[in-house]
Structure formats: structure tokens, C-alpha cells
Request: fold
Amino acid sequence: MKFVQSFLFRTTFALLGLLIFSGLGFSQTVLDSLSSPVFAGGAGGTASSDSPFADRFNPSLSADNQRTTLDASYFSLPDFQGNFGNAINLGAALPTRWAVFSATGSYWSINNSNLDLGQTGRLTLSASKDIWNDTALGIGLDGSLANSTWGLGLSLGFSQRVAQFGPFSNFRWGAALRDMGKGDIAQTSSAVPPPFTPAFGAEGTLLKYNGLSWRVRSDLSFPSTQDICVNLGTTLNLQDVFYLNLGTAYDAREIAAGIAPKIPVSVGLGFHFHTDFQNSNDLLSRHGWNRSEVQIDTAAVPLPGGTWGFGAGLRVPLGVRDTTPPVVTVPVKTWYISPNNDGIQDTLNLPVQITDERYVMGYTLTITDPSGKVIRTIQNKETPPPAPNWDGFWKRVFYEEKGVQVPPDLVWNGMSDAGQVVPEGTYKLAITAWDDNNNKKTYDAGTVVVLLTPPLATVAEPYTEFNPTGPRNTLTINQSGSVEDLWTGDFTNAQGAVVREFTWKDSPPMDLSWDGKNSAGKMVPDGVYRYTLTGADRAGNRTTVHVDNLMLTQFPPPYPSILTDRLFRP
Reply:
């Protein structure tokens, strides 16, 4: 126990000595908070979502940004001793199929009595990408130029989004290793930005009730691994319109040097609204930017040496975030199939169109039986490369989001998921489609009737010969069968030509008598004829029954003998 106490004492003493006597100066992290009024007011950090300037804290944070975003801000930096500084920031984020790219530029001029950082220009380029399960990685390149010196550093970042984490909803946490390289040396002998800075952060919504939400965040960083910075912040959001940000920051080296702000509390106010310009012919409307979000933020932040920063900024994510599921266009009707491999209506070919504002990531055709049981599921979805192993990781890094190709027809062959032909009956069709934001909707696609049994029919003829001019002047066909959409009875001659046709719709075939005339009402020639009864249902099942060798003769009958008393007597 004494050994542990001694170790902790010596470690603490060494750390304080390092903070106080390190060769690097102070105020290294001042410029980070002046990148945007959002961060100055305490509403951002290593786990923030305010792209594009969030990428300076963690280059992975823009990964879930789906809209081109523009950002501009200005800070006035008085020290209330007659000195005055300025800060100007411009940034943009551009989502692509592969990754989200961002670029931010800043110019600071700070020559105050107790905070003299001179003139500094900074340019940050970043690329961020969702890798798997709402987990993002990012890489950034940060260059700076100040007072004839320069700095260049590489940043790596990681972040993860979690829907619910303990009491927090919409939770996000992240880590970054910032500016691995050379920092430029400001007039205070501080490296700006401080190189090799590990940082960790988390934020989440603690309360959401009746249009009011309360979000809290914390950040811990180690500038140049020789300092400790703690940032705490909170945001009250009313109806997603009005925002109040409060933050506090503690820098161990500034506290040890006695230059920490006397009131370490920053405050920010924000007002957000949406535009909806109706002119559909202008450039904004053609790109969907007539409906955009406009965020106006202000902040007041205390800085070391008694300087304050008062800033205002404008952030505009162009367009609206896609919250609409894919649109499925499909004829809602009843279809008929007969999966018996006869080449006639063996499959259901369901015409369909699926469209989305972004990418259709998948769709499912579900067939359910009359009891509501799913008997077949036909699915197509985009599956990113697996990521657990090293090879899968790099495939994910270079994976380009494209969505799935939707064929003009969805085909069902009448088989169940078990690989068997389904029984006869009426089945319900439904199509579910989703996009890359997991917006999902199920659409009714009608019904399909499976018929496997062909129409039933029997045909009988009492006699096969008749004489249209004699006493047996018609040919009788006795027939019966199942009720079908259409039955056809044809009399054909020896050459196979149809001379007379009978039809029965939505009924069984009825008995008929043929008088020997064709469809035009004229008597057909003597000869041998054939009768064919054909029935078909809506699924294409057919039944054909033939009666052959039907004789039609028109010889006149012999005249009857006239016997009289004069010609014959017994």
C-alpha cells in the first residue's frame, strides 16, 4: 500500500513539474475554440456532429453528413485594454458515394497584451467514412502558417453512434490523435495547433420531452501529451429552433501558470430554421437546395489573459436530410400462375419500379398464404464487404456505396422457401424497400392465384352421322365440365379449317346441336368432320377433348312407295 501511495505521489509531482516547466508555451488550444461559434459556445468537441469544422477535432465526424454543407463565421477578440483581434473561418463538406470530404480554412490575428499569437492561417482537409455498424473512421491533413513559420500534421479519428447508451439517447463517442507532425511556433513559443494530441469525447441526449431536449458532452485531450484539457458542455434545444449552449474548459497548464480565464464559462445562442423557396426554375431548386436548413449561431468565450471572443456564424446544410422511404410503383391486381413447367404462365413476372432520393439499399418480395404465413421471401440487398478481419477492413475502406439494381420484373416461380411447389390458392404479395438511411416502407402488391389443376371436361355423341336435309338433321354433342373463363367448341373439316365455333364464358360447356352450317350460316359440304372442345383457366392451364369421324351427308331421302288398291291386292 505504501508503494502505491509513493508511486501516485511521485507521478503527480512529476506531472505538475512537466506542466509548469515544459519548454512549450501556453494557449495552444485557443485557436480550436475559435473555429466556430458552435465550439466556442461549448456545443462541440471530439464527438460533435457539426460538420465541417468538427473534423478539426476528429476527422471522422463528418461521416454521417449527407448534405453539402457551407460554414462561415467571424470572431471579434478584444482584451479590454485597447487591443483587438480577429478570427475568420470558412468551411465546406461534400458527401460522395465513397466518403465525405471537408475543407476548412481560418485566419486569426491576435496581438493582445496577454495573448499574443500573431497572425496565423490554417487549412484542414479531411475524409471520413462509415465503416460498419455506425462506426466511422477519418483522416485529416492540417497545415498552418504563422509569422514565417509553418506546421503540418496528420490526424486520425474514430467515432461511433449508438441509439441508446444507458440513460443517453443518440449517443456518440469518439477518439482522435490530432496533428501528428510539426506545429508552427507562435510568438508565445507555443505550437499551434499542438502536435501529437490524443483526444477523447462523448455526448448524448439525456432528456427529451415535449419539444425540449437536453444534451450533454465531455471532452478530454492531452495537447502534445504534455498538458491536460477538460471541456464540458451542454445544449438546451427548444423545438429544434432555439438553442442555448453552455460550456466550461479547464487547461492544467493555464491554471498552473495563472492565466486561465477568471470566468471559465462560455455561452452560445443559436437559431435554426428551414427555407422552402417555391421558384422551381432557379439553380437552388434544380439541386433540391430550395429546401435547406439555415443555422445561425453566436457565442461568447473567455480566453487566456483576459481576452474574450465574441463570434457569430452561419451554417447551411443544403437540401434536406432524406427521411422518406423508397417509392415502389407496382400494379395492384390479381395475377394467375400455373407452376407446372408447361411453358405457359409458369412464373409470376411482377413489373415494379423502386426509386429513392439517395440509394435503394434493398427490397423484399414477400408471399403469404391465406392464413398469413410467409411461404416465400425473395430479397435483394446491398451487402458491404465484411469488416471483422484485416482484409475485410480494407475492402470496407475502399467500398463505394451504390445501392442495388432493381430489375423491371420481380419473378416468382411458385416455389416455397422449402423448395416445393405451393398448393393451389390465393396468395398475398407485398414489397418492402429501404434506403441507406434505413427509411423503410412496405407496399401492397396485390394477390396471385396459383392453379395447378387443368379444366375438367367430358364429351359424348349419341350418333356420329347426320343429314341436314333428312330426319336426323342435327348433330348432338353432350358435354359437361368445370366452370372456367372460356370454353371453345370447334368443328373442323378434313383440312383442319374451323367451319363453326361455339363459346361459353364463365360457365361449364353446354350441350350443343350443329345443323351443318358454318359461322356465316351456309351449309358446309358433305364430308368427315372433327369436334374439339378446349378449355383454359386464367393461369393458362388447358384441356382439350376431341370427337373424330363425324359424318355429314346431304343425299335426299328415297321417295316413299305409294301403294293403292289398284296396284296391290292380297
User: Anything to note?
Assistant: The helical segments are 2-21, 30-33, 37-40, 252-257, 283-286, 390-397. The first strand starts at residue 69 and ends at 78. The chain is about 10% helix and 50% strand. Residues 327-450 form a domain with the Immunoglobulin-like fold (CATH 2.60.40.2550).
